[in-house]
Amino acid sequence: MRHWILGLAAFAILGAAVAADKPADRPAVEPRSSSTKGTVNIGGQRVAYTATAGTLVLKTDDGKPRAELFYIAYTRDGVADRSKRPVTFTFNGGPGSSSVWLHLGTFGPRRVDFADAVQPAPPPYGFVDNEHSLLDVTDLVFIDPVGTGYSRPAGEAKAEEFHGVTEDVRSVAEFIRRWTVENGRWNSPKYLAGESYGTTRAAGLVDYLQDAEGMFFNGVILVSSILNFQTARFDPGNDLPYITFLPTYAATAWYHGKIQPKPALEPFLEEVRRFAETEYAQALMLGARLPAAQEQAVAAKLARYMGVSEQFVRNANLRVNIFRFTKELLRDQRRTVGRLDSRYVGIDADAAGERFEHDPSYTAILGPYTAALNDYVRRELKFEDARKYEILSGQVNQRWNWGQANGGSFVNVGENLRRAMSKNPHLKVHVANGYYDLATPFFATEYTFDHLGLEPALRGNVTMSYYEAGHMMYSHPESLEKLKRELAAFIGR
Asked: What one-character DSSP code corresponds to residue 243?
């Protein structure tokens, strides 16, 4: 079973082979880096920093290279005691995604600037100082896992040694340990920040690094979280996603004017949450035993909340999966809605069919971020590499080893996070959720954390924030500003 977190159809066009994938074709590797100086105005203060773009070579026990990982690190200048200065290790998801999105979208000192929730404009794209960067409160290390960015297997190592739930955690953990040693940051406050599948990685990492390396963290930042994949997999016999996606369907219908008269958003979503976990959940549990009158009542409510016809809901046996929804909601307008951000609208060849041809919310960001990264890394960071910078690798995703995490059929790293928090009761977690995110819906995240099994004394260590945007909520200007406030307060706790 293939797990699509970031990109979906994009992997079809980004599935080019990773360069030098055969061990015999690989040249010897040595670490490379380029350091530059910069300044950025954040919250009214001028922050001077050093940017280092480079590769760190992972080695076997006998000293042979096995991988080179590309990273971009920002450290604030003029800090007298770095043991008191936080450092945050950051990555995106996919699996198969580079760290470009969090790097140039929200956390870094420079960001892509483009119009929100519209179709992409032609180049050149805007690139500006990021006044909402986290660099005023923490140093930042953006990591590209093996197979993404410029990161590649090296020596005799094979790609499958890195492309899996467990394999990925171990290689990224080794990078974090090495970077921490080489930069003298063992005693600094440390944070992990991941987006999408990067939140899956973060939960595995914080548990692994505590146990294997004795490295304890102050906090974990989860942007558009997915820890329990059962909440998002529309597989036969798994009714949970129909429940957990419903509030995001409702938010999407609300945004596109399909809920009339239009109520206030958050009270409306609270109403849908309660329906989803009571009447709707009970109806799905009953299955074929559901009485006809109850089925009709539930179908009527689902249709009203989703902004679609009651007949459509009944034809789907009360179970509308994400791709049917994104195609159906605006079918009468011959338009589709996005998966990463359902505010975005797309155009297909026709208005028939079960699913969209592309995710318009991904299409909108692909060009601007790709152009910005490739220009920025060479022109401003002075790092030269003739190879393709893998923004989002289809090959990595397609060969990912999902395994049987924690003995179940679905990957669920919630237990890893619970275990890490139980062993380290000082560990704090902040989760950022977009109301219009159909890749990692907010109600699915709430369900996951409600079922972590945390002791009551530890539940206060988890905080959540919500945004009127999608998976990359920072593409929405008001949400970008709010996200910075929330995370700066979290790191400062």
From this structure: H
